[in-house]
Amino acid sequence: MSSHAWETLVSSQCAYNYFVPLFFILPLWLLCILIAIGLVFSSKYRFLTNYLILCLTGALIGCFIFGTLVLFGVTKVEGQHPSSTMALVFLITLIGAGSVGGVVGLTSGFFLARWLNRILGWMRSNEARIAR
Question: Are 55 and 113 in contact (CB under 8 A)?
Answer without folding.
Answer: yes
